[in-house]
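ugh finaly. both done.
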Amino acid sequence: MDLPLEQYANVRIHMMPWCFTLKKSGNTLSTLPEKSVIGTSSLRRAAQLKKKFPHLEFKDIRGNLNTRLKKLDEQEDFSAIVLAAAGLRRMGWENRIGQILTSDECLYAVGQGALAVEVRTKDQDILSMVSALQDPETVLRCVAERAFMKRLEGGCSVPVAVSTVVKDLQLYLTGAVYSLDGSDSLKETMQSCVNFLQQEVEGPNDDVQHVGITALGVSQQALESAQCLGTGLADLLLSKGAKEILTVARQLNDSR
């Protein structure tokens, strides 16, 4: 999901893991022959998987679900392709799932799986109405993730990846940046207290936004903590050389 920062409203998340569909059953990525070609349209996933499976090659693949599966089955270009597991399950094609990718193996994109209601930023009536749909945990996760990407000045042209989880009122954010070939990377995890269960009942305030997210009824202290967490983690990676990694990645991607 890619909405302008100033228009991002209330969110609810359902994370959808990625999976591999393999041409030959019984294989896994680690057992595929050297220089086997894997199809994926994501710079972020390709960079992470190149780092984990350096014996494999990765090639861009486009099209809808049927088109990509047809390319895998009928052409010799690919040994496996990366797809959203939810899409295959929705179509009743679970048997095409050869290997599930966990967040430990491949971090996801900022805001991936988040559903947002886009409204006018000063329309308090609608904001109050849709706030009944929001999930406070998801709001905080998205605030932290978006603050992380904003400070890094990241986007779809560079491999920036995240993973968030809330446990015992602590928000854990893992963030990483990668070179296009995965050979150079930085990855760190930070946490912050976000006691979102103690929600404040706030009146209308169209100036209260956190990286473009308006969340009425969620503690402002928790929102600020989540935003500071994302910014703080980005600053940590920047201090270790993240800007240089992303600059080179962006230049190489633009030159393609």
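ok and the 2nd:
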Amino acid sequence: MVAHRGASGDRPEHTLAAYDLALQEGAEGVECDVRLTRDGHLVCVHDRRVDRTSNGTGLVSEMTLRQLRQLDWGSWHPGVPEPAAETTGLVTLDELLGLVLDWHRPVKIFIETKHPVRYGALVENKVLALLQRFGMASPPSADRSRAVVMSFSASAVWRVRRAAPLLPTVLLGATSHYLRGGAASTVGATAVGPSIAALRHRPELVDRAAAQGRALYCWTVDDYEDVRLCRDLGVAWISTNHPARTKKWLQESAAGPAG
């Protein structure tokens, strides 16, 4: 169970408040989107612009880290306890990696690189350099890797596979096309990532992926029936905005009916 942008159903997305809550609620993985600032820092922001998730306006790629840190990213959120200033600021990828690695149990971090962006391949290069600095770029095996790199861009996934072949990767998007011997095979992705809507329509995607030796990552799974569907189909990783609730449902599903 992967916390989508942290526990973003209860805390402002991509903030320490959201990630700390997700870890406390037992998430086995956390997911983040990364973009490059004008001065070359990797920050956890989903949109090209800061308008939706902060009190500022403008493009992430045109702002420096210092400018981005001056914005309010969620103290106004109804789920944030007081005081909020230290937990609702901008999070950089290296700060999030530190939080995950320092946690008292193993947690995976799923890093999504956004494309198209003005900095192109530099985003993946910076991500891999940072993972190398944290000792996460060359895991002993995919199963034991603490990091997974994802993208909707096949080119981005290929860049990661070519530079760090032991790192697990997820090719997100129209998986029904990828599993016909197309992009997933070409770029060597170790997993594919359809949306929950796509999986409802094409539940056979799980078996097709498994037949090709690929895992399946599904996003974003917040409803009870969808959680049960993913578990019944054998989805490896489900991304959710509500980690505590989703974990409870998964445990109830595993336990089966009483008596």
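summary for the 2nd one i guess: The domain at 2-254 is CATH 3.20.20.190 (TIM Barrel).
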